[in-house]
Amino acid sequence: MKTLFMRIFLILMTLFMVVQLWIFASLLWWRTHPVDRSMFMRIDAFQYPDETLQHKWRDYDEISNQFKHAVVAAEDGKFLHHHGFDFEGMQVALQRNEKADGIVAGGSTISQQLAKNLFLFNQRSFVRKGQEAIATWMMERMWSKQRILEVYMNSVELGANIYGVEAASRHYFHKSSKNLTREQAIFLAALLPNPRYYQQHPEDEKFRFRKRFIAKYIRYSQIPT
Predict the structure, then answer these.
(1) What does the record list as GO biological process (predicted)?
(2) Is residue 35 one of the residues assigned to a domain?
(3) In total, how many domains does the chain have?
(4) 89-102 pLDDT per residue, tens
(5) Rounded CA separation 108/76 (Å)
(6) CATH number of residue 162's parent domain
(7) Alpha carbon of 53 to those of 34, 38, 123, 149, 193: distances in Å?
């Protein structure tokens, strides 16, 4: 029995190390190469094989600064000042969830969200959160803040089968993401917590609140230059 447990342990440790090496190698490659497919995109393509996935890469300088400011204001106001984890934000989110007796706030940084989008899946579990933390730690040490934001803007889901700001800009406004106005950037950033739902319910009060929130704080958000 002891030998069996040891074999199982060694198998699990080997699988764990293989996953970490895969993530490390992917992050190393993506330091200088566009991300063509994230894990979320692959899952989406598998679940909806008859629907065309919309995605087009754009370099950092080809994306409107309005959208960069809007995303940071919406998702991670301390983006430039943390190393992947906003522990104060996590504590606030935990308190809000406990008060509401449910999940009403996340507290994940842009780096954490990107790690999940690139390598993991959307279902909550301690294993997924642990792996997300490891991937985030590696990413923050291998990539600059500008690269993290660049990849995030190019891979985040912004509607049904719509990934990245360029595809979203062309879908909603029929224009390049470089030419997004302030109001259009705020609209796209406000979609982020639940893009498929808000895409179909643009008059939802939570969505309207998020647009007002982003409009209020967009001027204070700091972005990589």
Answers:
(1) cell wall organization; peptidoglycan biosynthetic process; regulation of cell shape
(2) no
(3) 1
(4) 767 656 655 554 44
(5) 8
(6) 1.10.3810.10
(7) 17, 12, 21, 22, 19
